[in-house]
Specification:
By secondary structure, the protein is of the alpha/beta class. It has a single domain (2-80, 157-265), classed as Rossmann fold (3-Layer(aba) Sandwich), CATH 3.40.50. The chain contains 11 helices and 10 strands. It has helices at 40-47, 71-78, 96-107, 112-125, 141-154, 171-184, 200-206, 224-230, 233-244, 248-253, 258-265, and strands at residues 2-11, 14-24, 29-33, 55-60, 63-64, 81-84, 159-163, 192-197, 209-214, 217-223. It has a 6-stranded mixed sheet with strand order 6-7-8-3-9-10, with helices on both faces. A 4-stranded antiparallel sheet has the order 2-1-4-5, with no helix packed on it. The chain starts with a strand and ends with a helix. Bound molecules: adenosine-5'-triphosphate and magnesium ion (MG). Residues 11, 16, 34, 36-42, 86, 164, 198 line the site of adenosine-5'-triphosphate.
């Protein structure tokens, strides 16, 4: 579904990404995890063809995104992709309903009746039905985020990306949003999903498989429980430090490996 190989990019003299290589299969869900500013958003932008890498190859649904020059062809591929941007990116001059309609009108062949049904269903699913005719500026940050996520899924994409879906939100709203993505997405077995985040807890709650980025490279790729116990010291530390701060009861909910729990909570 997605293949990146040896992807490099620099802004000015500063190399940001030095060698990014990973793949995502149809139906798979992964978390792209790394410290703030490590280049997660940049990677997503490159996968969507919004930014060209300096070197390396990027394939999306069998298309070579880097060499694709025709805008028409690019648009055709991107019609099957859903993206919830880190900054929301809703149209402020359109109501919630019109934001969702706009995406579906441009990216799908749905009829008006289908679109209407989908808007009602999706807003209901994320418990913000009454915002249908409101404008984004009238909504709280958490509500705007839900609209952004629902918009990414409204078009029933083959691949969906969620960039920091919960940053800046309180833990309760974060949990609601995460559960919502899981419930709404992945309806079709072929749908692949990528969450990019610097939040370890969000990453491991979203996906079994995490791809960890640091200093321009993929420094770990695998099931998070395995990485937590067997990753390089840096990876174990990066994952572990965020988790040992959690309350023990809460940590239990995350299903942390017993080894790890023994080591940090039983004295
Ligand atoms: N178009 C650009 N021109 C110059 N520098 C850029 C550009 N895009 C990103 N950068 C720089 O690249 C670095 C990584 O940015 P990016 O947004 O990809 O990181 P991130 O991992 O998504 O961060 P965060 O966790 O804060 O979302 C930042 O230092 C940023 O300033
Ligand atoms: Mg980012």
């Amino acid at each position: 579904m997605i293949h990146l190989k040896g992807v490099k990019v620099a802004f000015g003299d500063e190399p940001l990404l030095k060698d990014i290589t990973f793949s995502v299969s149809p139906g798979e869900r992964i978390s792209l995890l790394g410290p703030g500013g490590c280049g997660k958003t940049t990677i997503l932008k490159m996968i969507l063809g919004l930014l060209l890498p300096d070197a390396g190859s990027i394939e999306l649904m069998g298309h070579n995104i880097v060499t694709m020059t025709s805008d028409t062809e690019k648009r055709k591929v991107l019609r099957r992709v859903g993206m919830a941007f880190q900054q929301g990116a809703l149209f402020d001059f359109m109501t919630v309903r019109d934001n969702l309609f706009f995406a579906m009108e441009h990216m799908t062949e749905f009829t008006k009746i289908e679109m209407d049904r989908r808007v009602k269903f999706l807003l209901e699913a994320v418990k913000i039905s009454r915002t249908e005719n409101q404008y984004p500026f009238e909504l709280s940050g958490g509500m705007q985020r839900r609209v952004g996520i629902v918009r990414a899924l409204a078009t029933d994409p083959v691949v969906a990306f969620f960039d920091e879906p919960t940053s800046g939100l309180d833990p309760v709203t974060s949990t609601i949003i995460l559960n919502m993505i899981s419930a709404l997405a992945g309806k079709s077995a072929e749908q692949a999903m990528v969450v990019a985040t610097s939040n370890v807890e969000i990453a491991i709650r979203f996906a079994e498989r995490v791809v960890v980025i640091n200093e321009g490279r993929v420094v770990a790729d695998g099931p998070w429980k395995k990485l937590l116990l067997e990753g390089t010291p840096w990876v174990q530390h990066f994952l572990g430090v965020r988790l040992i701060g959690l309350d023990e009861e809460y940590a239990k909910e995350l299903n942390l490996p017993s080894h790890f729990v023994e080591r940090h909570w039983r004295h």
